[in-house]
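User: I'm new to structure prediction. If I give you an amino acid sequence, what do you actually give back? Let's try with this one:
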Amino acid sequence: MPDYDPDNIFAKLLRGEIPSTRVYEDDDTLAFMDIMPRADGHLLVIPKTPCRNILDASPAQLGAVMQTVQKLSQAVIAAFGADGVTVQQFNEAAGGQEVFHLHMHVLPRHEGDRLRPPGTMGDMDLIQAQAEKIRAALADS
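Assistant: Good question. You get back a string of structure tokens that encode the predicted 3D arrangement of the chain. For your 141 residues, that looks like this:
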């Protein structure tokens, strides 16, 4: 497996070198809005420490990420009145991974809806408004 690249986009985001719409943060993880959302409220959860994906993540990194995924899954269901949530995670290029820093996608879902196609930039004002809804749901929990 290739080494972790400390200049990947999520590492830069963690260092504050590029902007993001942060929704939640604790000592070990960060959750922020996806700028190419496949559903309203689509966000990403990452560990604050380096790892490419689940293949090289420590049990502590995985545990911290999954606790935050659960918390944010509950928040997006509350924020969007969703019927469920899809959690996605990809490993290595052959597995569909594009950014080589462990990350989980959290997508609120409604019965019968379809995910939007990947790769389309979202409306940043709408993404910011959705982030506010998620933050409010976290505050109410």
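You can read the tokens as a compact description of the fold. Here is one thing that stands out. Helices lie at 9-14, 59-80, 124-140.
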